[in-house]
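User: Teach me something about this protein's shape.
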Amino acid sequence: MSNYSQLKDLVLSLESDFEKFYDKQNSAAGTRVRKGMQELKNLAQTIRTEVQNTKNSAGDAAGAGAAKAAPAKKAAAPAAKKAAPAKKK
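Assistant: First, the predicted structure itself:
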């Protein structure tokens, strides 16, 4: 749960900068908000990767005999091309 705590702390730490930027039009606070949002994005990606790895390792531990998820649907066939218009004489 360490990542979750970091996520909450980061969001709470940005609150005052959001208020300063949006309510008081402080551009320096906007820079801090943008920096914090980039950190939030990176932390979110780390958490997503961790969750996916945990799910995959749990699936591997269940064994190969377990039913796999249905394969993804294939993309729809592209629409037929329209015939070129006839040339005028």
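Now, about its shape. Residues 2-56 form one domain. The first helix runs from residue 2 to 24. If you'd like, I can walk through any region in more detail.
User: That's plenty for now, thanks!
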